[in-house]
Each structure stands twice: as C-alpha cells, then as structure tokens.
Amino acid sequence: MGSPKGYYYAPGRYTVLHYCRKMGVNAQTADLSISNTDKYRAEYYQYYTGGNYWTNPVNYDIILNSERMGIEGCVQMILHCLEVKLGICTETV
C-alpha cells in the first residue's frame, strides 16, 4: 500500500511573502532561494525516480494549496488522508 504521497503548493507571490517573513530577507533574495530550491528538487526527483516532472499531479495522492487552505488546514487534510489510506487514527495527534 505505501505511505500517501503529497504535493504542497502555494502560488509564487504567496511563497515569496511567506519566505520573506520567515527568513527576514527581501523579495529578491527569497525569489532566488526559492528558484534554486525548486531547481534542486526537480533534479533530485529526476535522478532518484527517473520520473516525469516533480510537480506533476499524477505522482501524488493529494495536492494541497497552502495559500487557500492555510498551514493548519493542510495539516488536517494530511491527517485525514492518513486515516483513509492507512487506517491510522490521528485524533490524538
């Protein structure tokens, strides 16, 4: 069966603003760091899986937009996914 696979996404403008607040950097630095990280993730995914692009939805069981759902909303959806796919009770988590 395996663990559920998730892809967690937020639009670029939201990601940059969140990164700026969290890391205390300007938008240009945040954008460069995010771009470099995304490039690394794409290369890593390709190397280890031989698969198609790492953001392709067919590779995942669940895709969540953290701008729309919020971090806590995403956490709740992940917990629900674990309950459904693996039969794990997450009420006490």
Q: How would you portray this structure in words?
A:
The protein is mainly α and 93 residues long. 60% of the residues lie in helices and 9% in strands. A two-stranded parallel sheet has the order 1-2. The chain is flat and about 45 Å long. It starts with 5 loop residues before the first strand and ends in a 7-residue tail after the last helix.
SSE class = mainly alpha
Report the count of strand segments. 2
Outline: flat
Radius of gyration: 15 Å
Low-confidence stretches: none
Protein name: Cytidylate kinase family protein
Keywords: Kinase, Transferase
Organism: Candidatus Scybalocola faecigallinarum
InterPro entries: P-loop_NTPase
Give a short summary of the structure.
InterPro entries: P-loop_NTPase. With 93 residues, this protein is mainly alpha-helical. Helices cover 60% and strands 9% of the residues.
Keywords, please?
single chain, 93 residues, mainly alpha, Rossmann fold, two-stranded parallel sheet, 60% helix, 9% strand, flat
Produce the secondary structure layout.
Blueprint (H helix, E strand, L loop, with lengths): L5 E4 L2 H12 L3 H23 L12 E4 H21 L7
Parallel strand pairs: 1-2
Helix pairs in contact: 1-2
GO molecular function: kinase activity
Protein name: Cytidylate kinase family protein
Keywords: Kinase, Transferase
